[in-house]
Design a protein that fits this description.
single chain, about 100 residues, mainly alpha, 4 helices, elongated
């Protein structure tokens, strides 16, 4: 029975890892595109904003005092750190748990 749970955890880890990787790339592309002042009506730009705003807006609000001082939006960088932390800690922990359940 525990082996079944281990494989369910493995599947969830794989899906979660893919979602975090896609989110990482979407944020990176949005940050790079923001340097060239993109057309806000472009469907790709709209998709990037809609898909990354739920993550970047709370971080931007939290960093707002710092952003006003240095005039640089650091929310993508903080989002990268959070994504990397989740990939290393949460996914690593779940994989270890899955490994232990298979034994």
């Amino acid at each position: 029975m525990l082996v079944v749970l281990a494989y369910i955890i493995d599947g969830l880890v794989a899906v979660f890892s893919i979602i975090l990787t896609i989110l990482y790339w979407l944020i990176l592309i949005r940050a790079l595109i923001s340097w060239v002042n993109p057309d806000p009506y472009n469907p790709i730009v709209q998709f990037l904003r809609r898909s990354t705003d739920p993550i970047l807006e709370p971080i931007s609000k939290f960093l707002m005092p710092l952003t006003y001082k240095i005039h640089v939006d650091l929310s993508p960088l903080v989002a990268f750190f959070i994504i990397i932390f989740l990939q290393k800690s949460l996914i690593g922990t779940l994989l270890y748990l899955s490994f232990r359940l298979k034994q």
